[in-house]
Amino acid sequence: MDGYDFEAYKSAGFGRFDEVDKEDAKKVKLGAPDIGLSGWLNYFGNVIKLSPIPPGMKFGEIPEGVLRLGGTYVIKDDQIVYRWSDRLPGDHPNIEEVRNIAKEAAAAATKSASSPFSFNSLFSSFK
Q1: Which value, to the nearest 10 degrees, does the dihedral of the CA atoms of residues 112, 116, 120, 122 take?
Q2: pTM for this structure?
């Protein structure tokens, strides 16, 4: 988190879901995950714990952090090789596509020996 002003989110191009173009929102196909009752209870418990609530916020107000959308980046050295901005909460890129792009970036970095970092180790949990 970058503070209650969310300047890093804005700089990254991430918007708020209450500002999404209605036509763009229609293109998003979302489905609730099958996580069962205990999974949903854990999810809502975590949302409450992790949502940044600024000091002085009144009951019933929606924290800015709840309205913010996120995204996914793959960065090689100083270059963005992949960028995705969520259009709505739950709108995520295809993880296989992101993983393959990251592996290609890691392979290119290994060939040039310019980066000691390995994307393969980072994404091994997605196998």
Answers
A1: -140
A2: 0.61
